[in-house]
Write a structure and sequence with these properties.
single chain, about 325 residues, alpha/beta, Rossmann fold, eight-stranded mixed beta sheet, 12 helices, about 40% helix, globular
Length: about 325
């Protein structure tokens, strides 16, 4: 109860109610299909489809919109608009809109270009219908959403879509990028069978990966490397070319003792190595605008240790200042 109360107080401080509710919120969602996706071998291993669409936050008082911050977070399992709302207060002060987009697939890994194109069409619809300016656009991804925004950038770079966002920067927070490492983490969690939550997550993610990538990293390594937006195992570093021209922020928290005691995880059994490795490869590619921001347990605003906790710890005022500075540098 104390933890929940602390979290509520923090949320109120960074996200005032007066900004969260009002006529500056637009929601456009379609009803979910009456169907579900198999996520495991058991008869109960299914997730229902979710509502696809978007939530748009506009600055108060009909202010001119000077930029757009986009999140690709689903409307179901991850909770609709959960990460995006934490930027509303700062975006409102800066005159930025915040757009949260969801496909119909729960916990969408963007295995298929169909999902990515679906998100792309929703973004275009939101821009057209709400007269959003295609300038000073920032893509932000927390956890799996971080993987999604990079897959989205990769997709639009490789295709010839008529509508292209004018992206000024990318932000990823505690995101899984290396699916070879992620698969091995899941396999180890299942093998040691120490924590129920870790075992469930490892079982779910490895089933989904094996099903969509036609095997394991041992039997089909190239498929895993091609799906990853960064991988320590990829000697060619084939995906960095899609991101090397963008200013990038990557956030992570170092909580080695916490994960050791709670779930018997090692230093590579988390998304931190992906954040460090991704920024390292960007710098090697000549990107001097890439940054790694590291938090330690004493920096955290909550006793929890997960992707949501890392995002909660991010200084949103400083992040907004970073976006404004980059926007001012645009021609």
């Amino acid at each position: 109860m104390k933890i929940k109360l602390k979290l509520l107080i923090v949320c109120l401080l960074i996200f005032p109610i007066s900004v969260a509710h009002g006529q500056n919120i637009v929601e456009e969602y379609q009803e979910a299909m009456n169907d579900s996706l198999q996520i495991g071998e058991m008869d109960t291993d299914f997730l229902k489809y979710i509502k696809k669409g978007y939530t748009l936050f506009r600055p108060n008082n009909n202010r001119e919109i000077t930029g757009v911050i986009i999140f690709l977070e689903d409307s179901g399992f991850e909770l609709k608009n959960k990460s995006a709302t934490q930027m509303y207060y700062q975006a409102n002060k800066a005159g930025f809109a915040v757009l949260s987009v969801s496909t119909e697939i729960p916990l969408d890994f963007f295995f298929s270009d169909v999902s990515i194109l679906d998100a792309h069409k929703t973004i275009k619809e939101a821009f057209d219908k709400n007269n959003l300016p295609n300038k000073n656009v920032f893509l932000v991804g927390v956890g799996l959403s971080g993987h999604r925004i990079l897959k989205y950038v990769e997709y639009v770079k490789k295709t010839n879509e008529n509508f292209l966002l004018k992206i000024s920067g990318l932000v990823i927070c505690d995101a899984p990028l290396d699916w070879v490492r992620q698969y091995n983490e899941g396999r180890r969690d299942r093998r040691i069978n120490f924590d129920e939550g870790a075992v469930w997550e490892g079982t779910f993610s490895n089933y989904i990966l094996e099903k969509n990538l036609n095997g394991t990293p041992t039997t089909n390594l190239e498929k895993y490397l091609d799906f990853s937006t960064y991988s320590y195992s990829d000697e060619k570093n084939r995906k960095i070319k899609y991101f090397k021209d963008y200013p990038v922020r990557a956030y992570m928290e170092v909580a080695v003792k916490y994960w050791l005691e709670r779930k018997r995880k090692t230093t590579i059994d988390n998304n931190g190595p992906d954040m460090v490795g991704f920024i390292a490869q960007l710098k090697l590619a000549g990107n001097d605008k890439s940054e790694l921001v590291v938090f330690y347990p004493q920096d955290s605003k909550t006793e929890k240790k997960n992707t949501d906790a890392t995002w909660l710890t991010v200084d949103k005022d400083e992040l907004m200042d970073w976006m404004i500075k980059l926007s001012e540098q645009q021609p």
